[in-house]
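Ticket reopened. Same input as before:
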Amino acid sequence: MCTYLTQSGPIDGSGKGPNGWFTLTQATVYVDHPQHAPYEHTVNIDLANPKLGPAARVGLELTEEGALALIESIRAALASAPPGLASANGPARPVAA
Amino acid sequence: MYDAMMAETVKINGHQGDEVEAYLARPLTPGPSGGVVVIHHMPGYDQSTKEMVRKFAAHGYAAICPNLYWREAPGAAPDDAAATARAAGGVPDERLIGDVAGAAAYLRGLTSSNGKVGVIGHCSGGRQAFLSACELDLDAAVDCYGAFVVNTPPEGSPLKVRPVLPLAEKLSCPVLGLFGADDQFPAPDEVATLEAELTKLGKEFEFHSYEGAGHAFFAVDRPSYRPAAAVEGWQRIFEFYGRTLAA
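Engineering reply: fixed in the latest deploy. New output:
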């Protein structure tokens, strides 16, 4: 089935597409038919920058298990680093005594 | 029997006269022959849709598929174009109708045309085929598992579309509907509602629902492919067009 349900939101970082690295501005997530993965349905993630055109896109088609494992991996990686280390605002600075 | 055909990318005038890319396949016989507008599915103006266009030509019809994502993503790979169009909320109905009208006019303008034009679409294209048949003067419409003809898309859907059922009384031509009994979009109750409404309105239609088949059972390159349903479905399509698009 086509679920048509789509979550979309801003994202900040870079991705590597067919034309090299570019700045990412938008993440779109939906469960629907994949283009390439050999399953009827997958969790599809498009990391894109619409201003740079349709090819400025990193596409992912993950199984439910793969998507959930990725979420856990991201959480684990962030938890192992000092809070804020990868934040757009930089790591939290110790307050001077 | 002479069976040469030609397939090529052309430009047509779509909604509001916009120049839009389209894929055309036609027999190289003088005609007269009917035409088919193929509406591509959400994954876009892709290889499998173009194969379908050529299949119609091999069966004696001039067939054309307008690239519905041309405006958002001219020249882009079909998957990138589909992602762009999805993020933008899908194809507006008004523009779709204009593009199908342009494609139908292009087919009717071919010297080989017998003046008759049908439409076919799968998935989102199934709804758009039905919508086109309500808004345009066509000779036949094939709706392959089109969702949201009856029901409204769920909240959170990127598709800014409305149900088509209220337009059904304007239906200009016979409809062939091919559905999977295991599909959820459209689910069997949505198909039953559509059937009841068309019966009430006295419209000419023929629906087939295939057991053991779900959504996208015609898609040969996807695990949803169901050979028995697809083979029989193609037979129904060519019988239907044979009746409705004959000279």
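The longest strand of chain B covers residues 113-122. DSSP finds six helices and eight strands in chain B. Please confirm and we'll close it.
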